[in-house]
Amino acid sequence: MKPKVAFICVHNSCRSQMAEALGKMFAGDVFDSYSAGTELRPQINQDAVRIINQLYHVDMNETQKSKLLHDIPKADIVIKMGCNVVCPYLPSKHEEDWGLDDPSGKNDDEFIKTAKIIEEKVKDLAKRIKNNEIEEINF
Predict the structure, then answer these.
(1) Ordered structural domains, the chain, with CATH
(2) Fewest CB within 10 A of the end CB: N or C in the chain?
(3) Computed from CA positions of residues 108, 17, 12, 131, in that sequence, does the dihedral angle turn out positive or negative?
């Protein structure tokens, strides 16, 4: 059975949504990706949607929506995006904080940079899970 990875931040509209999409794309064979937050947004950040569509040809408007922590299954691994405030708490076997700056309100280059960092971190996480490098998790 694949581990469930929850990408969380307060608003669940930008970084965590990008991570969910890229997790499904680059690590779907290794783990199941979910994203959630403590506050709902009426829609995902449309700059994030546009950049993910441009770079990866994935339309997050069609496949994802803003979700609260209780809307997703129990997570084995929790990835905090880097809230700079109090990040939401979600129980798990393993937790990391990726410390990503929020590109919201910034130019496309910042969104592209954030997407590329998330892509690399998702691939690295998948590799560590495959190689059993995350000690708390045994699947």
Answers:
(1) 4-130 (3.40.50.2300)
(2) N
(3) negative
Side chain identity at residue 95, one-letter code: E
Sequence-separated contacts (24+) of 108-114 with Cβ below 8 Å: 108/47, 108/51, 111/47, 111/48, 111/51, 112/51, 112/55, 114/15, 114/18
Whether the CB-CB separation of 17 and 24 falls below 8 Å is answered with no
Q: What is the pLDDT of residue 86?
A: 67
In the block, residue with structure tokens 């892509």: 119
Indicate if the pLDDT at residue 73 is higher than 60: yes
**pLDDT value of residue 53:** 98
Handedness of CA 17, 21, 27, 30 (dihedral sign): positive
29 CB-contact burial (10 Å; exposed 0-12 / middle 13-18 / buried 19+): exposed
pLDDT > 70? residue 63: yes
72 close to 34: Cβ distance less than 8 angstroms: yes
Contact between 23 and 7 (Cβ < 8 Å): yes
Tokens at residue 90, please?
Answer: 């979600």
